[in-house]
Amino acid sequence: MVWCELDPARAPRYLHATVVEAEAEAERLARMHRGQKFYVLEIVGAVRSNDVSWDRVTDDKEIPF
């Protein structure tokens, strides 16, 4: 992923398959936008909230309604 510090509201939209591809994109953007700094980002982790769970009713229990 590539990010430009001068436009922080614009989030990266593309996840490059390799670091080499991301670096090439950063170079391309830097050539188009002289003087702006572009960062090649690395994903270091992810988190997910699991706030829904099911209690399944099996055939041997009566349905409570």
Q: What's the short version?
A:
By secondary structure, this protein is an alpha+beta fold. The protein contains 1 helix and 2 strands.
How does this structure look, described?
The chain is an alpha+beta fold and 65 residues long. It has a domain at 2-40. The chain is built from one helix and two strands; from the N terminus they run βαβ. The protein has one helix spanning 19-32; strands spanning 2-4, 38-40. Strands 1-2 form a two-stranded antiparallel ribbon. The termini are far apart. The mean pLDDT is 87.
Global mean pLDDT = 87
What is the H/E string?
EHE
The number of strands is 2
Low-pLDDT segments, ≥5 res: none
Number of helices in the DSSP assignment:
1
Main sheet: strands, sense, barrel: 2 strands, antiparallel
Widest beta sheet: strand line-up: 1-2
Strand proportion, as a percent range, falls in 5-15%
Helix percent band? 10-25%
Structural class: alpha+beta
State the distance separating the first and last CA atoms.
Answer: 52 Å
Q: Roughly how many Å is the radius of gyration?
A: 23 Å
